[in-house]
């Protein structure tokens, strides 16, 4: 039940921050909540890791004779994620307190961040697909709020809309997957479905028929279910073709990019795939591996050409997520999880360091009234001497990203690559190129991250009065830097198999073979070569830039392979056009119909008004006026004049006589 | 011998003149005079028709009674007119219309 507490505290913190905080008071509550969450998560992790999974559930609601349950499932996967998320979110909370100190909407920021932490942790401990889906949506929503936090910026508003819409597209996939599974098994409980002897593992696939507990479907549905789950994960984890939201999401505050769009939320897709891993058949796994590899390669090439420091890191994130996805596709979810864990630390650190650089430059530019873009690496240089701590920690993170020995990234990347080569050896056809593509990607990674470091920290120093970031920003970075080194993950710095995370997920043994020896060596050597090449291009002599800004390939990469433009042309424009047409149809036909009915009613009522006025009222009024006329006429006789009365009497008598005599 | 029709025609003319006076005069005294005209028209009729009752001359006696009664009636009427004048400050019967609705 500690886990529940850990998951709920951020929510309470968020509410408390929103309710009680005046300016700057929110930070204390938020950080306190974060610390508490971390302590609880650590306790949960300590008591549950490598023990039997804890599964507690209550009946949630009943429809017909189907009872839906809600509860928590604590196995190695969820407690690892819980620990990871709470740890990183604690560091990011501390960092944010300094980074966002001057923002007038700070309480709102803490609230959104708290909401995010709550949904993310609830997502990892949830025990049913329905609950996961719920928190999956919440995570997307809080990400939407945080990307658009600076809501006066047009770019941020566009970016959060884009992120939200693309995530929604993915959610459709997830929902469809849930539907397929539910119609097959009539339950959404993770343990019932996906445990070792669960329904999915024990339902036979005979002759193209997928036999479930309560019925059977064509085996095509199994493939479809896997593919649509992957589609859901694709949006959340920014895989091709739904990757375009992540670079734009960098419009949010840097700590947000660090926590959500590098370390945790984007890992949700990977997490989901690992959760439902037994569902995937051969076709889907191949699809996952191909998409992951393609994304990794594509994003790495794009990262080569970016100028914005956060964009480089964003594309790098997509690339690394591609690695994880590819590892899942190659049947090695344990190495995917391992890479997820190490990546969370070093990518978070990269973002925080970038944030520190941006923070300082922004202050500097704001002071001097300069309008230079503080995120453009072309304007940076020589920060090594001004910000030594940032330089050192960012270099450690960069080495981890590039996969150098002694770092955590080395272990996890090798785990992925070794399993990739082991898998590739078994593949005969065109798919055997996948491991080599991943290898090339790792070289590209080393190059672009080296370019980033050299551009930012080396070369001639420009600004004079820059100094180190404040302590609340510096310390989380140092802690993260320590987490990027090997001892946290493995006692043996060169053998990923001794890493405890790998041991904790030993789903199936990696067929290491000869690859286990030469892949790490090749990666290290190639990475070193790439770094030296980058040094040659950017570090030693900044004018000796061999990549001109005019090349076709360069522009291709700078524009992200033109996917944004393609989507704009292929999807956005037609949708907008269709909406225009529908709008026109609505306006002309539907509205026209409604208006016609309206005016028909109007004329009908005009007719009835006429009838009322000139027939019904006329009868009534006519009667009235007749009696009035008669009354007025007879009234004339009562005029009080004696002579008149007499005249009337005489006239009456005369008339009477006339009647008597002449008729 | 004057034929009966002449009496009757004079009487009718007198009656009509009297009636017209009663209807149209704006003075109560004149109205009263009109009434006297009409009474006298009747009296002429009595006298004229008394030629058929030569033995008792009932018509002429009736005429005498009528004249006396008319004189008494005039006295009463004049008294009323006097009082009306005191009360209303007018003897125009058209202006004394308090009985109207």
Automatic annotation (TrEMBL), chain A:
The gene is nuoL. This is NADH-quinone oxidoreductase subunit L. Gene3D superfamilies: 1.20.5.2700. Keywords: Membrane, Transmembrane, Transmembrane helix. The chain crosses the membrane at residues 26-46, 80-99, 106-126, 132-152, 164-185, 220-238, 259-278, 284-305, 312-330, 336-358, 389-411, 431-454, 475-495, 515-538, 644-662. Its main location: membrane. One of its GO terms (biological process) is electron transport coupled proton transport. Residues 126-431 form the NADH:quinone oxidoreductase/Mrp antiporter transmembrane domain. It holds the Pfam family Proton_antipo_N. It is a multi-pass membrane protein. GO terms for molecular function: NADH dehydrogenase (ubiquinone) activity; NADH dehydrogenase activity. It is found in: Endomembrane system; Membrane. It comes from the Bacteria. It comes from Hufsiella ginkgonis. GO terms for cellular component: endomembrane system; membrane. The keyword DNA damage does not apply. Residues 60-109 form the NADH-Ubiquinone oxidoreductase (complex I) chain 5 N-terminal domain.
UniProtKB/TrEMBL annotation, chain B:
Keywords: Cell membrane, Membrane, NAD, Oxidoreductase, Quinone, Translocase, Transmembrane, Transmembrane helix, Transport. Its EC number is 7.1.1.-. It comes from Hufsiella ginkgonis. PANTHER family: NADH-UBIQUINONE OXIDOREDUCTASE CHAIN 4L, NADH-UBIQUINONE OXIDOREDUCTASE SUBUNIT ND4L. GO terms for molecular function: NADH dehydrogenase (quinone) (non-electrogenic) activity; quinone binding. The keyword Transmembrane helix applies. Belongs to the complex I subunit 4L family. It catalyses: a quinone + NADH + 5 H(+)(in) = a quinol + NAD(+) + 4 H(+)(out). This is NADH-quinone oxidoreductase subunit K. The keyword NAD applies. The gene is nuoK. GO terms for cellular component: NADH dehydrogenase complex; plasma membrane. GO terms for biological process: ATP synthesis coupled electron transport. It is found in: Cell membrane; Membrane. The chain crosses the membrane at residues 6-24, 31-49, 61-85. NDH-1 shuttles electrons from NADH, via FMN and iron-sulfur (Fe-S) centers, to quinones in the respiratory chain. The immediate electron acceptor for the enzyme in this species is believed to be ubiquinone. Couples the redox reaction to proton translocation (for every two electrons transferred, four hydrogen ions are translocated across the cytoplasmic membrane), and thus conserves the redox energy in a proton gradient. NDH-1 shuttles electrons from NADH, via FMN and iron-sulfur (Fe-S) centers, to quinones in the respiratory chain. The immediate electron acceptor for the enzyme in this species is believed to be a menaquinone. Couples the redox reaction to proton translocation (for every two electrons transferred, four hydrogen ions are translocated across the cytoplasmic membrane), and thus conserves the redox energy in a proton gradient. NDH-1 is composed of 14 different subunits. Subunits NuoA, H, J, K, L, M, N constitute the membrane sector of the complex. It is a multi-pass membrane protein.
């Amino acid at each position: 039940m500690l886990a529940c507490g850990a998951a709920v505290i951020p929510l309470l913190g968020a509410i408390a921050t929103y309710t009680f905080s005046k300016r700057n008071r929110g930070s204390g509550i938020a950080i306190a909540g974060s610390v508490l969450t971390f302590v609880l998560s650590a306790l949960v992790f300590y008591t549950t890791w490598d023990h039997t999974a804890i599964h507690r559930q209550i009946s949630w609601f009943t429809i017909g004779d189907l009872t839906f349950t809600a509860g928590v499932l604590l196995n190695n996967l969820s407690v690892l994620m819980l620990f990871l998320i709470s740890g990183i979110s604690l560091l990011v909370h501390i960092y944010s307190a300094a980074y966002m100190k001057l923002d007038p909407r700070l309480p709102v920021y803490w609230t959104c961040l708290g909401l995010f932490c709550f949904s993310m942790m609830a997502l990892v401990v949830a025990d049913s697909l329905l609950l996961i889906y719920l928190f999956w949506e919440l995570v997307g929503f809080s990400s939407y709020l945080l990307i658009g936090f600076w809501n006066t910026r047009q770019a941020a508003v566009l970016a959060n809309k884009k992120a939200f819409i693309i995530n929604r597209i993915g959610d459709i996939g997830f929902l469809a997957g849930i539907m397929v599974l539910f119609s097959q098994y009539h339950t959404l409980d993770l343990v019932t479905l996906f445990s070792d002897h669960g329904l999915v593992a024990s339902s036979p696939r005979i002759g193209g028929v997928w036999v479930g507990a309560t019925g059977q479907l064509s085996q095509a549905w199994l493939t479809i279910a896997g593919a649509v789950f992957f589609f859901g994960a694709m949006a959340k984890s920014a895989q091709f073709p739904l990757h375009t939201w992540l670079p734009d999401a960098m419009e949010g505050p840097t700590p947000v990019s660090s926590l959500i769009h590098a370390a945790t939320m984007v890992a949700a897709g990977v997490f989901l795939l690992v959760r439902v891993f037994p569902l995937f058949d051969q076709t889907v796994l191949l699809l996952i591996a191909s998409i992951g590899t393609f994304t990794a390669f594509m994003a790495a090439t794009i990262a080569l050409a970016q100028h914005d420091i956060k964009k480089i890191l964003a594309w790098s994130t997509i690339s690394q997520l591609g690695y994880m996805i590819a590892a899942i596709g190659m049947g090695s979810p344990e190495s995917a999880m391992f890479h997820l864990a190490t990546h969370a630390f070093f990518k978070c650190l990269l973002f925080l360091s970038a944030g520190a650089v941006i923070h300082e430059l922004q202050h500097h530019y704001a002071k001097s009234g300069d309008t230079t873009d503080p995120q453009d690496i072309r304007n940076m240089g020589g920060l090594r001497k001004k910000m030594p701590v940032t330089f050192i920690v960012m270099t450690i993170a960069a080495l981890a990203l590039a996969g150098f020995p002694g770092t955590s990234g080395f272990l996890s990347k090798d785990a992925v690559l070794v399993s990739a080569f082991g898998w590739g050896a078994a593949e005969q056809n065109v798919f055997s190129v996948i491991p080599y593509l991943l290898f090339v990607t790792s070289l590209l990674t080393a190059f672009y991250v080296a370019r980033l470091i050299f551009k930012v920290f080396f070369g001639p120093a420009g600004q004079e009065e820059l100094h180190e970031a404040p302590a609340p920003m510096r310390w989380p970075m140092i802690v993260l830097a320590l987490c990027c080194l090997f001892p946290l993950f493995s006692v043996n710095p060169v053998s990923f198999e001794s890493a405890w995370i790998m041991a904790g997920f030993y789903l199936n043994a990696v067929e290491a073979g000869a690859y286990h020896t030469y892949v790490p060596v090749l990666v290290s050597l190639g990475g070193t070569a790439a770094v030296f090449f980058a040094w040659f291009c950017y570090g030693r002599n900044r004018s000796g830039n061999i990549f001109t800004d005019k090349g076709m390939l360069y522009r291709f990469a700078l524009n992200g392979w033109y996917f944004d433009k393609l989507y704009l042309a292929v999807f956005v424009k037609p949708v907008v056009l269709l909406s225009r047409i529908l709008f026109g149809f609505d306006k002309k036909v539907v509205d026209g119909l409604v208006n016609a009915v309206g005016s028909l009613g109007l004329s009908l009522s005009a007719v009835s008004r006429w009838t009322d006025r000139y027939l019904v009222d006329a009868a009534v009024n006519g009667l009235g006026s007749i009696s009035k006329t008669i009354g007025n006429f007879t009234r004339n006789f009562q005029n009080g004049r004696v002579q008149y009365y007499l005249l009337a009497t005489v006239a009456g008598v005369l008339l009477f006589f006339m009647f008597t005599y002449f008729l | 011998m004057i034929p009966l029709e002449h009496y009757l025609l004079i009487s009718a003319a007198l009656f009509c003149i009297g009636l017209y006076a009663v209807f149209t005069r704006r003075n109560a005294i004149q109205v009263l005079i009109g009434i006297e005209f009409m009474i006298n028209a009747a009296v002429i009729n009595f006298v004229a028709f008394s030629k058929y009752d030569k033995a008792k001359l009932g018509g002429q006696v009736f005429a005498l009674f009528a004249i006396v009664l008319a004189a008494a009636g005039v006295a009463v009427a004049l008294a009323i007119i006097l009082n009306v004048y005191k009360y209303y400050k007018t003897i125009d019967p058209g202006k004394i219309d308090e009985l109207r609705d």
